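Annotated sample (chain length 91).
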Amino acid sequence: MSGSVSGTPVTLSDRELQVVELVAAGLTNEKIAEKLEISKRTVDNHISNILNKTRADNRVTLVRWALQWGKVCLDNINCCPLPRPIDKEVS
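Output written by the structure step:
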């Protein structure tokens, strides 16, 4: 790895994004496995794939990448409010 995170957008699967959010929340791989009800080995594989895709060297660099690209929201930083669904009146 080059020591710097990817400067281009990276596509992560929904599960990989879940893992990134939990890494950013400070969970260990064991706790992520418990939370997602998957094995620790599967989490290890997800983390490895994510680090490769983002070219991040470690979890800290991964969180910095996720913040930079708007993939996570921490303490109301980088948060984009989702549009609320429009209530349709029933006639």
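Annotation: Helices lie at 14-24, 29-36, 40-54, 59-68.
Annotation: The two ends are 60 Å apart (CA to CA).
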